[in-house]
Prior knowledge:
- The protein is built from five helices and ten strands.
- Helix content is about 20%, strand content about 30%.
- The chain folds into two domains: about 1-95, Alpha-Beta Plaits (2-Layer Sandwich); about 110-244, Alpha-Beta Plaits (2-Layer Sandwich), CATH 3.30.70.660.
- The model has no long low-confidence stretch (mean pLDDT about 95).
- The relative contact order is 0.19.
Amino acid sequence: xxxxxxFSYNGSKYNGYQKQPGNLKTIQGEIxxxxxxxxxxxxxxxxxxxxxxxxxxxxxQTAHFDxxxxxxxxxxxxxxxxxxxxxxxxxKIEQVNNDFHARYDAISKKYxxxxxxxxxxxxxxxxxxxxxxxxxxxxxxKGISYFIGKHNFKLFVGxxxxxxxxxxxxxxxxxEQEGDIxxxxxxxxxxMQYQIRNMVGTLVKVGQRKIKPEQIxxxxxxxxxxxxxxxxxxxxRLVEVRYR
Length: 244
């Protein structure tokens, strides 16, 4: 049977979501170890909606896996949570069709990035980027509007140089401010490695008046890679994955 799992995690102490060589500690590795143990030692592999980078968090990550054993959804959820670190928590498990795929059947993803413009806060440093300097928020709000729509985001992608298609659609993007904390929300059909962190970093440069908001439009044509700055991973979290 195939299951869809919704789960959250604190990525501060992990080397990203995806399994890596050398027995590095990853979110995927922790969950697969737990499922393999529950499955009597028979390997279970999970397939997520997408991977997150080192230090990035999730409130609503999803993954599917196959498991052939007689166990209720609630008991399976409790069994996984009992055998993984408390940095990770399974929120919900559902049975799905055998042709369901957590990545390819997703229709949208929502990410939020948090940034502190005020005094350094050691209690929030793992979850809110401590920039600790004033920014022109109105300019940034103008800048973020240029990301909405279907664009070529090649300049905003790092790491994977083998892609042939860098076009993605962002359905909505906006900034909210509460005191010194800025929250950048991006909702789109999918995001590539470092894409959101590079978009936020570029908006920070806009807020510092180092570049104009309108220059973001030129970046979709491949101009201005030297203007892009990658924001720290700690401020980013995957909030929700939606399916049909």
